[in-house]
């Protein structure tokens, strides 16, 4: 677990440093993910420690969103005033995005390239 | 309350211990309910845990800032967890490279749909300009979305909440929508869920199957990147 955690933190640290230094528009952890991915590609895969450690961290990924979600208590007024546009916007936009993304992917998969699976 | 209990409360309310413990307990309760429901998407653990915590904070009159002083340790783990998504991504990479064209086309279409439809529907039903700007990055993972909201003039903390609810809505509805439009490929299901519903969609996809999870993680990263590049360019034209 320690090996995995230090690997993950190190990638994040390098990611955060590089995005600030080079003023990249993407956040440090996402660059960290790309860096770890490149490192895994060079090494030919994660070791057992990293594989298990990342599985542990990702198993309860949902938990990590709870503190930010609880921030709704800061916005009860606005949510109370604008609940209808907020609700409809989130609902319609989320459903549309799912449908459009999946449909476009399926169309591109069927027509130009030869599908493998 | 008797005097000693009140004093203990004063101590607890000021220490990070309470916020951290409450977050874990609320999530554990929510997750147990989720399991008991047979992992029914409507029993989404994030939504239930947030509801439990919001009611607790309201009943005890605790400020969010006080709660967050403890909960920030959980929040912090979002960073390393995002990095950890590289591992499922790596194990699924062969499939990813064989689907490169659909991935790029789906990403561009999905990312634009998410931004434009969120703002236009909000505007149509009377959302204020700052609410529209806070809605625009709602399909992107929390840390990126907050950064974008700040840059384009939205409210980062409102965006964080909208992001979470977008994630929950996607996690709840995805299965039914994909079944209705007859999309069965786990790679496409995962990728579309990651574009629409970022990390919460990814968490849901990982529960269903590893390939879906890897594609959701990829979609989350790519959509974060694309939205961060696109949105500052188009927000002035969209929001009114």
Structure notes:
- The complex is a heterodimer of chains A (117) and B (240).
- Chain A is 74% helix and 0% strand.
- Chain A is mostly helical and 117 residues long.
- In chain A, helix 1 (2-21) packs across helix 2 (28-43) and helix 1 crosses helix 3.
- The longest helix of chain A has 28 residues, at 83-110.
- Chain B has two domains: 3-76, no CATH class; 83-238, no CATH class.
- By secondary structure, chain B is mainly α.
- In chain B, helix 2 (16-36) packs across helix 3 (45-60).
- The chains are: A mainly alpha (117), B mainly alpha (240).
Describe the secondary-structure layout:
The complex is a heterodimer of chains A (117) and B (240).
Chain A: H1 2-21, H2 28-43, H3 48-59, H4 66-69, H5 76-81, H6 83-110
Chain B: H1 3-14, H2 16-36, H3 45-60, H4 64-76, H5 78-84, H6 86-91, H7 93-98, H8 100-124, H9 129-135, H10 142-152, H11 156-180, H12 186-208, H13 210-238
Helix pairs in contact in B: 2-3, 2-4, 8-9, 8-12, 8-13, 10-11, 10-13, 11-12, 12-13
Question: Would you count the extended β strands of chain B for me?
Answer: 0
Largest sheet of chain B: none
Anisotropy-based shape of chain B? globular
Uncertain regions spanning at least 5 consecutive residues of chain B: none
Shape category of chain A: extended
Task: Write the H/E string of chain B, N to C.
Answer: HHHHHHHHHHHHH
CA radius of gyration of chain B: 19 Å
Strand content of chain B: under 5%
Mean pLDDT of chain B: 90
How many helices of chain B? Answer: 13
Tally of domains of chain B: 2
- Unreliable residue stretches of chain A: none
């Amino acid at each position: 677990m320690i090996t995995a955690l230090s690997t993950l933190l190190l990638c994040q640290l390098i990611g955060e440093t590089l995005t600030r230094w080079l003023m990249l528009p993407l956040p440090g952890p996402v660059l960290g993910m790309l860096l770890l991915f490149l490192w895994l590609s060079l090494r030919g895969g994660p070791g057992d420690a990293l594989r298990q450690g990342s599985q542990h961290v990702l198993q309860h990924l949902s938990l990590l969103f709870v503190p930010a979600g609880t921030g709704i208590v800061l916005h009860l007024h606005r949510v109370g005033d604008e609940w209808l546009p907020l609700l409809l916007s989130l609902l319609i936009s989320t459903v549309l995005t799912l449908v459009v993304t999946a449909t476009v992917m399926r169309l591109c998969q069927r027509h130009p390239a030869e599908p493998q699976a | 309350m008797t005097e000693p209990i009140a004093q203990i409360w004063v101590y607890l309310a000021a220490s990070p211990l309470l916020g951290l413990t409450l977050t874990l307990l609320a999530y554990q309760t929510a997750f147990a309910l989720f399991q008991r429901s047979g992992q029914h998407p409507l029993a989404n653990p994030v939504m239930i845990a947030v509801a439990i915590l919001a009611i607790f904070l309201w009943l005890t009159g605790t400020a969010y800032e006080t709660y967050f002083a403890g909960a920030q340790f959980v929040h912090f783990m979002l960073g390393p967890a995002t990095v950890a998504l590289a591992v499922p991504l790596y194990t699924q990479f062969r499939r990813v490279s064989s689907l490169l064209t659909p991935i790029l086309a789906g990403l561009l279409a999905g990312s634009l749909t998410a931004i434009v439809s969120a703002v236009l529907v909000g505007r149509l039903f009377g959302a204020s300009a700052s609410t529209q700007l806070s809605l625009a990055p709602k399909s992107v993972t929390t840390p990126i979305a907050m950064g974008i909201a700040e840059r384009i003039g939205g409210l980062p903390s409102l965006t964080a909440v909208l992001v979470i609810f977008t994630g929950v809505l996607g996690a709840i509805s995805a299965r039914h929508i994909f079944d209705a439009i007859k999309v069965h490929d786990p790679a496409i299901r995962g990728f579309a869920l990651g574009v629409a519903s970022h990390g919460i969609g990814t968490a849901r996809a990982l529960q269903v199957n590893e390939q879906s999870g890897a594609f959701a993680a990829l979609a989350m990263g790519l959509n974060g990147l694309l939205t961060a590049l696109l949105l500052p360019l188009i927000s002035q034209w969209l929001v009114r």
